[in-house]
Amino acid sequence: MSTVKNRQIVLDTETTGMNMVGVHYEGHRIIEIGAVEVINRRLTGNNFHVYIKPDRLVDPEAFGVHGIADEFLSDKPSFVDIAAEFLDYIKGAELIIHNAPFDIGFMDYEFDKLKQGIGHTREFCSITDSLLMARKQFPGKRNSLDALCGRFDIDNTKRTLHGALLDAEILADVYLAMTGGQTTLTFNAENEHAADSGLLAQHQSVKTTGQLRVITATAGEQALHEEYLDRIEKKSGQCLWR
User: CA dist 10 to 37, 38, 144, Å?
Assistant: First the structure.
């Protein structure tokens, strides 16, 4: 169990399906877990990813979403085989999950089926639902993972089908954008582009004459500046320089 402070795990699961009436997880199983570790707002590369053999067939509707076939899962470990490693990975962390009740419901259902007295996930992890966060930030708008990728200009072109690890990686980018803006600023690339276009301000050495000389930005430079602030605001939801 990790004791690192500010440790977050962005997590997603895929399942055999779900009940449309009653408890959504009952009778179904988790078949894939994908999780990425974030410490102090940095992706560490310490990911957790596993496919799991269920004791039932995958529903056709679920297969249409994630494309994970029964034949593919036939030689994978059962949940009991990966449970200890998974618990050690997530214990003590803050779990970031999009529509958390869905995944947490399945996780608690799987833990309960082990009959090992593991308890509920909320007893050893804190849980943050990024879907609820998005609904508060963008009321009345679509807040699916794909919609948020478009809103924050995050590349999701590889997401032709749902996949737990890919979705967790994308959600990590979305969550970081929602909660603190861009994590890297490409000032060098921007300046090189502007220099190639001949639009950087021309700084001249000025002898001191007792009066401060002010060199104002050109209209082109001001337009570039506004475009750059627009990109910051689009990615982070706010811009401190306005």
Answer: 7, 8, 16
Residue 25 · residue 31 · CB < 8 Å: no
Number of DSSP helices (H) and strands (E) in the chain, helices first? 9, 6
Of the candidates 24, 49, 66, 162, the residue annotated as catalytic is 162
Strands 30-39 and 7-15: antiparallel
User: How many CA atoms within 13 Å lie on the side-chain side of 87?
Assistant: 19
pLDDT digit string (tens) for 40-71?
A: 999 999 999 999 999 999 999 999 989 999 99
Tokens of 27: 């009778």
The per-residue pLDDT for range 195-226, each reduced to its tens digit, is 444 434 443 333 444 555 667 788 777 777 77
Token output for 79: 């949940």
Q: What span, in angstroms and rounded, lies between the C-alpha atoms of 45 and 50?
A: 15
The pTM (predicted TM-score) of the whole model is 0.72
Q: Is 162 a catalytic residue?
A: yes
Token pair listed for 84: 């200890």
| Identity of residue 214 | V
Q: Are 36 and 47 in contact (CB under 8 A)?
A: yes
Taking the C-alpha atoms of residue 225 and residue 238, their distance in angstroms, rounded to an integer, is 15
**Helix residue ranges, H only, 5-97:** 60-66, 70-73, 79-90
d(CA 168, CA 191): 33
